[in-house]
Each structure stands twice: as structure tokens, then as C-alpha cells.
């Protein structure tokens, strides 16, 4: 698993886009569903952290996507027999896509993203967007779980309930999560202003960045030179 963490961020990002392309190009649910299951099994095989929470979210996403597509196709006059494969294929594509980028987020630290972006000489705004996007999403997920724990502490059962109730409670977490996201964005912008972030100023990296990301530059013992 440590090798996955040390893999260059852009290599992992390219792999995620490749998986996404395959997920959206495979025809129908007969190929899409096994491919989505395979993506989740790969996450389990390489030991990506937080997989249990991802699987719960993926199942919830599958239910919501299939329900929305079935309702949408029903109002378009499509029978349930024809609508179900379409909904299953769309849900499978989304699961495979989210699994690929979940791998990138869980195995990429903000420092490794900054190092890879700086070594690639990306524009400062691109470096900032990449580091914030892949760094903030895990933090928001942790906030989402803390909100759920607070709901449990106040007597709101969010686990052993029916799916419609679980969806309603999940939506109830959206408002405090949005407030927390706005506060986090304000704190980040304030910190950047304090530290003098300037889009016109180039940055350097303190890491060796190639196919793998090395945590520090090699050094020699001064005693060996004497």
C-alpha cells in the first residue's frame, strides 16, 4: 500500500481517467456491472483505507441513481423491463468512476500533490486547484461522518432505518456540511493571504518526483567525506 502512496500523483490521476473512460465506453449493464464490482474489489485488494464507508456510500448512490433513472424513464413512457438495464448501467458507470477517484484521493496527500504539480511546473492556479480539490474532499467526508455522529448522539438513528428515512437523514446533513465547507474555504483563503500567496510567483519542490515520489532528497554523511 505504501507503494501506492508513493506513486506519482499524475500517474494515479491518469489511471483514474483511464478507468473512467472504460466505465463509460463499455456497452450496457452486462459489462458495466462486473467492471464496477471489479473496481471495488481492486480497492479492497490493495487495502485502500476507509473502504467500508465508501461501500456504504456507493450502495446509497446506486439506490438513488437507479431510482431517479427509473422514475425519469417511466415518465418518458419506457417500461420497467427496458428501464432497469439502463438504470443499472448508469449506476455501474458512476460506481466505477467514483471508485477510481476515491483511490486517488485516499492515496495522495496534499504534500505529494503539491510536489508533483511543482515538479511538473504547472501554473500556480492549477497547482492550487488540484491540491484543494483532492485535499478538501476527504476532509469534508470526515465532517460528514462527524455530523452523523452528532445526529446519533442526539437520538437520531441513521443506521437501522428504512432506505427513504436514511436518504432523508443524509440530506439533513447537507446544510451543516455546506456551512462547514464555506467556513473551510474562508479559512484557506485567509491563510493564503497571510502567507503571501501570489499567482505570479513560481514555487519549488523539496521532493524528488519521478514515477515514484521520494520523501526527501538523498544526502551523504559528512563523516564519509572527511
From TrEMBL:
A Pfam family assignment = CbiQ
PANTHER family reported for this sequence:
SLL0384 PROTEIN
Major localization listed first in the record, in broad terms:
membrane
Q: Which family does it belong to?
A: Belongs to the CbiQ family.
Question: What superkingdom does the record give?
Answer: Bacteria
Q: Give a Gene Ontology cellular component term annotated to this protein.
A: plasma membrane
Query: Would the keyword Transmembrane be found if you checked this record's keyword annotation?
Result: yes
Regarding the membrane, this protein is recorded as: Multi-pass membrane protein
Q: Under what name is this protein listed? A: Energy-coupling factor transporter transmembrane protein EcfT
Q: Where in the cell is the protein located?
A: Membrane
Going by the UniProt record, its keywords in alphabetical order are: Cell membrane, Membrane, Transmembrane, Transmembrane helix
Q: Where do the TM regions start and end? A: 7-26, 32-51, 58-78, 84-105, 112-137, 177-197
The keyword Membrane belongs to this UniProt entry's keyword annotation: yes
